[in-house]
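Q: What would this complex look like in 3D?
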Amino acid sequence: MPDRDASPILSIRDLNVRFGRDAVAAVTDVSFDIGRERVGIVGESGSGKSTTGRAIMRLLPAKAGVTAKTMVFCGEELLGKSERQMDRLRGQEMALIMQDPRYSLNPVLSIGKQIAESARLHLGLKGKQALSAARDMLIRVRISDPDRVMGQYPHQISGGMGQRVMIAMMLIARPKLVIADEPTSALDVSVRKDVLNLLDELVRENNSGLILISHDIRMVASFCDRIIVMYRGRIAEELTSLDKAQHSYTRALIAAMPDARHPVRRLAVMDRQALENIGGRVG
Amino acid sequence: MIRVENLDVAFGHGQSRHHVVRDVSFAVEWGETLGIVGESGCGKSTLLRSLAGLEGGWTGRIWFDGREVGRLRGREELKLAQMVFQDPYGSLHPRHRIGTALAEPLKAMGHRDDRERVLRALRQVGLPADFANRFPHELSGGQRQRVAIARALILSPPILLLDEPTSALDVSIQAEVLNLLADQRDERSLTFVLVSHDLAVVAHMCDRVLVMKDGTFVDELTKNDLQRGVAHDAYARELFDASFMQQLQGS
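A: Here is my prediction, written as structure tokens for the whole assembly.
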């Protein structure tokens, strides 16, 4: 179906999220399309990047006011969906991978059971079949002795292995869209690359879209086809590479990062006042 | 300024004995900034805590400024080195005002409760004096780390031990805190030992970097090595590549 392949998986227009009745807007007029590609959303704490991810999954608390002109996922409008319809989509069609596997895995269920549960729910497999699907998936995420890991509990495995298990669980249903929210921030540097490469490989294989949410603009730049930079709830700009950065916030963000190969005596510091003044004109 | 010989730290006994730091020796010159990088569990924080006197179970010898210091530190020895931790929220008492938190080291060292000195310490780290009346939760993460730095510096120690001082902060705030540390170092000619997993931060701050793995140093890099991306040891090179994502393909 070449036609369907070219159309975006997710298309958002004017997404707004606010918490409380007249509190500050967390996300303002955010619009973007995601195709079968890897798109990064970067920004600092409070920029609205994670809130955007959760708004797509409809995982925000009830008190959050989420409005948008359209939010189309694979040809279906998400905004009018009931909680039950969303339940069917979540996990099956769209998956969320969070920062720390220690908090997103169930501590009292063995790894094998947790992945098998995913196979049961989303693939309709039963008993032995589900367990063997789980085992296959563990091999896919390059866990060398799957039988031992199947019987282990989350506290017995390392962070990097935990994140592999999360990826196995989330991708077993071959979702069309994967949202990874800081998937490597809790991991050691040497493990990060493996986890990202693995995620990339599986997402490509499934021909899905990937949204990588992170504070690390360099990591995102080396990994993603496109970068969406968020600042104070708005999209500051969209980039394909860091050297094309136009917006003063993006430039300040890049300049603030220490770089071993280009040493400076003092790091550039953001002029927040100046950014505030142009804040109203971004997007 | 700092000399360490045959420092060894192990936790537990018998079967569960865990050898964390294995017989390391190194020295740091006056005014030098030494970086120690490594991944979780390599022993870098334990090494720093031993230097700070927070870890009791070490063997070996440590000298600060030509004086040998022991496992239990007296007032004069504590005044030689102070520590800044990763999470400023965790290291400030939630129900003490900032002014009280800053006065604590002065009281512990037998000084009078000197308000003027507290306010001066706040100003030195770029915070307004009225912050002394605030509680930690009324400050942002970057401001809290400034308070932690002010508290470490209030006794004017010649040595500052920094354990991941900016890992919990946003990049733009990290830049401000690193600049503050560099300024204080130049102004007071301080000696730093900076422990971090972030090679970019370490390369920016340090004159010399030791790469730690499984309790020992596997490589030593000069500023020049870091700039050119040269590492002598295979593990150090791996760490290098991983942190700069050189091998990751965009598409």
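A: To summarize the key features: Chain A touches chain B at residues 38, 44-45, 159, 188-190, 192-193, 196-197, 215, 217-219, 221-225, 241, 252-253, 256-261, 263-270 (CB under 8 Å). The mean pLDDT of chain A is 88.
Q: Very helpful, thank you.
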